[in-house]
Amino acid sequence: MRSIKTRQIMELNQTQRNLIEKLGVFHEKTGMPPTESRVLSLLLVSDEIELTFDEIRETLQVSKSAISNALNTLMLTNKIEYITKSGDRKRYFRSNLSNWKKNAADGLHSLLSINALMKEVLAIRTDKTPEFNKDLGDVIAFIDFLQVELLVIFNKWNQLK
Amino acid sequence: MRSIKTRQIMELNQTQRNLIEKLGVFHEKTGMPPTESRVLSLLLVSDEIELTFDEIRETLQVSKSAISNALNTLMLTNKIEYITKSGDRKRYFRSNLSNWKKNAADGLHSLLSINALMKEVLAIRTDKTPEFNKDLGDVIAFIDFLQVELLVIFNKWNQLK
DNA sequence: TTTTTAGTTCTGTTTTAACAGAACTAAAAA
DNA sequence: TTTTTAGTTCTGTTAAAACAGAACTAAAAA
To answer: Which residues partner with A93 through β-bridges?
Structure first.
């Protein structure tokens, strides 16, 4: 038998719990489901940055199925990852902080992806509404502009680092 | 009695309907409810850019209550507006295209508002995880940087115009 | 081989969001 | 004044999301 030290149950102080709640609500507003939001927030706030399935489960007091689903989609979307420790069967989940920059970039990209649709709209609009069409064209031009400029910004940041 | 011309029922071709659907799905992914998404998309695609309550209702085939709620929240969030025509009791709703730039700016701003929470997190984190904390600090610095640079970009655009 | 463990998947329940339809309201028109 | 119109608000229904709990699985340990 391996001597796997069972850690004492995770303790969160009230400040930490409040922050998890606030972060959770924030993420929910972006469309992320409650449990997923809480897990992600917990992994950001917790003193212990690597937590096992059961530690997360007990801390948040939700069912195994909910935790399982949350962890899996968080991994699929690259927001968390896990490591293993030799001689330990459990997986240790942790926030994928180093990837957040890329995640942010992805988020912005998908946000700007509406422009393809906008261009489709403009292409099929009647020519009887020139002013409206001009406004729409402006919006499209602005988003295109934004896309280019954001790339510049990202490069600038990477050079600073 | 006033002679208010009842317009012929709105006709949308299949291309237009498909686009409304695609735009609708896009907006739904950002957390906007289905009917609201459809109304907003309709007002972008329709040849007639100013539509009455009932025209929208008949075109989309949904209930009055759904339309009423959708229109009101779209107005609250500044995505649409309405005009009136003298001697006509109806309101004519239209996409608030000229405000979309501001809406985009607002959207980005609220997106970046997570940084306040991130700073709260960093402030209360244990000092026993220096590497993690450093990564978190980097994320925060990046978002702060992004905020400033986005302002520059918006100004740059406004000068181009 | 049997047993334990860490997590997954399935099924049913609860909760919440979204909507329909009817009753209602306020202002304008008749 | 009454009637019509344009939209709102209320109540009940439907549909979908989120979750709990138990059964299950696969790999490791005993």
So the answer is: A51, A82
Least Cα separation, residue B85 to chain A (angstroms): 18
Long-range contacts of B29-35 (CB under 8 A, 24+ apart): B29/A31, B30/A31, B31/A29, B31/A30, B31/A31, B33/B70, B35/B60, B35/B62, B35/B66, B35/B67, B35/B69, B35/B70
A152: part of which helix (H) or strand (E)?
A: helix A130-160
Distance CA(A99)–CA(A105), nearest Å, equals: 10
Does A156 contact B135 at a Cβ distance shorter than 8 Å? Answer: no
φ, ψ of residue B127 to 5 degrees: the values are -90, 10
User: Tens-of-pLDDT digits for all 161 residues of chain B?
Assistant: 444 456 766 789 999 999 999 999 999 988 899 999 999 999 999 999 999 999 999 999 999 999 999 999 999 999 999 999 988 889 999 999 988 888 888 878 887 889 999 999 999 999 999 999 999 999 999 999 999 999 999 999 989 87
- The pair phi, psi for residue A6, each rounded to 5°, is -80, 115
Through-space separation of residue B124 CA and nucleotide C17 C1' in angstroms: 36
Output the six-digit token pair for B80.
Answer: 């649409």
